[in-house]
Specification:
1 helix; Thrombin, subunit H; mainly beta; single chain
Amino acid sequence: MIRRLCLLLLSLTVIWTVGVGTARAEAAKRVHNGMQILFSPSMPFAFCTIGAVGNDKYGHRIAISAGHCLSDPDGSYADREIHDNVAPVYDRADTGFGPIGHVRYFKDPEGSQTGHMTKDYMIIELVPQVTLSSQGPYLKQTGEVTVPGGTASPNAPHPALDTERLLATGDNELIVSGQTGVWYGTIMDNTGGIYRSAAANLTGDSGGPAIRHVPGTELPSQENGFQASGPWAGITKAITLSLPPFEYTSSANILADLRTRDTAVPAGVFGAGFQVTTNP
């Protein structure tokens, strides 16, 4: 079921193309889940949202968002490591800072032949001038969802890690945040590691944060300022015609696909071994 905490509006997916940016970051900035991001300062209404920030096993500072936020018609960049700074990312609220990072990988649903439904994510390498924070406007992320013995993500190698296993439907709730505030709802369906829930999202919320409600912990409410904390469970994906209509790419799918790709690339991939930051 859904508990509505803010006004619900209709939504569409935001898509933008890979571009080139030359701005340079010069001062410290806190980067966190729920931050709205742009891929071109000249297009302030074509935005997406950061779902989680942390570090990978190679020492890179990483932010994760939705892959469908970028499109790549000629296939030059999608579904491969991007080592050049051809796709800068900006804080929508402070484009004057310059790029907060650069896209290093994204899965373009339009350019992908297989697997794009379960691998809709983007990896952003953040610039050294930013500070990572686990605290977003509403959600504090406490590590990653761990499901010992649960069903493995279809993207997982064998054996799957506990963080690559999926939450059970009907027994778990997602808490999400976006432009209309905070929502929470039961996971009603899980198809290939894509969760379907009544927790709502809007245009521009793509890539935004979803955490698991840990039983016994406080749910967001007016009394607590609509704040909640819990392990990172996934990112906002889409609104569909099914009921409930809201889809989320599981963190298990993202982490499993990163590990799978990392084993296949001798030089390693950005984001492999990702862990949510513990910084406040």
